[in-house]
Amino acid sequence: MRLTALATVASLTLTQTAYSQTTSSCNPTQQYSCPADPALSKSVNVDFTSGESDQFTASGLPTYDSNGASFTVGQSGDAPMLTSNWYIMFGKVEVKMKAAPGQGIVSSCVLQSDDLDEIDWEWVGNQQDQVQSIYFRKGDASTSGRGAAFHMDNPTEGFHTYTIDWTSTELVWQVDGKTQRALKATDAGDQYPQTPMLVKLGIWSGGDSSNAPGTIAWAGGNTDYSAGPYTMVVQSIAVTDYSTGKSYSYSDQTGSWTSIKAAGGFINGGSTNVDTSAPAITSVVSGAVPFEGTHRTSTSVSTPGIGNWRATASGMTSTVATTYPGLPSGWTVNGSGKVVPPSKATTVSIPLRMLLLISCSLSLGLAMGFLL
Q: Exposed, middle or buried, 15 (CB in 10 Å: 0-12/13-18/19+)?
């Protein structure tokens, strides 16, 4: 009986471990011998009004017409996305797009690295007067000041050009050519994003009823699918890699930009942005910033729910999350890009040392029984 109980506990522990991980090819700051990242090493301009592009890989089936690439949420689990087939190591990304309307709907433009450095634009569908900028270093969302919201008129009703200009010394967010935020690497300290990044474009339902309460609150409330579908449209994207070479690799596990090596090229060897001032940030996220949806496929660490985070039109406040941000624990994404919730079975976590101690004790007890 006790052996059966032990086997059950071990099985539950392993089940929890599997559920608390989402997919990732390799995190170079946690694993050795990760493959090199293919480098863009040039500039590309993609016009989605002409159809799909071989520069990106699609999941969740975005569609194309004369307006551009459309990303639609029509029902629970829809999360279409495009992911670049290359990485940039510092660079400039300009995307011309129209965000999706709708309570609970989140449109995203995300730069993300294998070790979870990240630079984002985020649009919450029922917040018609703002866009959010966010950055992360190695997935750490525990400190304040990472997120800032900027006022703009109706991002869901017209096309605007959103720019991320990123170098080793400064990170700039612009809307229609006007600088909204500038972050100096010296001001961010060890939290400055600085490793090779993929580019992702996507939409997801933060207000889905199966999401964590904090996620739903941040997304503006529960999603009403009967009022949809909800569509984000990307007309074009222009990307310039400021470094050169065939690929980028991590020479150690520090995640520092100076440890990144370029095969056949130079890190930070291309163009750079011009130093520019930015207006004062008046709406700042003061605690942990939740991120899910478009971020999901590169997360390589435990990612349970995110806690109670809330955004308002007049500013954003938050409580510090007690867990790592990301897709809720146990959630997965199937091959078509659908977000799949876990089973409702309760899992139990017991430290490995305790399992070994119990196992050894039972084995010793059985041996003593035979001797007696």
A: middle
User: For residue 229, is the peptide bond before it cis, meaning its omega torsion is within 30 degrees of 0?
Assistant: yes
CATH class given for the domain over 25-345 = mainly beta
Residue 50: per-residue pLDDT: 98
Residue 177 contacts by C-beta under 8 Å, 6 or more apart in sequence?
161, 163
Give me the pLDDT at residue 228, please.
95
Judged by DSSP in three states, 218 sits in: helix
CA distance 205 to 237: 23
pLDDT of residue 326: 42
157 labelled catalytic? no
Q: Contact 319/309 with Cβ under 8 angstroms?
A: yes
Nearest to 293 by CA among 151, 123, 166: 123
Q: Is 118 marked active-site?
A: yes
| Domains of the chain by residue range | 25-345
Flag residues of the chain having pLDDT under 70.
Answer: 1-24, 143-144, 269-372
Contacts of 48-53 spanning 24+ positions with Cβ under 8 A: 48/234, 48/235, 48/236, 48/237, 49/235, 49/236
Considering the candidates 122, 157, 170, 292, report the single residue annotated as catalytic.
122
Distance CA 328, CA 231 (A): 24
> What is the C-alpha separation between 344 and 310, in angstroms, rounded?
26
What per-residue confidence (pLDDT) applies to 185?
A: 93
pLDDT of residue 290: 53
Q: Which residues contact 228 (CB under 8 A, 6 or more apart)?
A: 73, 74, 75, 102
The pLDDT mean for the chain works out to: 76
Q: How many CB atoms lie within 10 A of CB 240?
A: 19
User: For position 241, what pLDDT does the model report?
Assistant: 96
Whole-angstrom distance, CA of residue 307 vs CA of residue 1: 39
What pLDDT shows up at residue 189?
86
pLDDT at 33: 87
* Residue 120 backbone phi and psi in degrees, to 5: -130, 155
From the list 52, 94, 118, 157, the catalytic residue is: 118
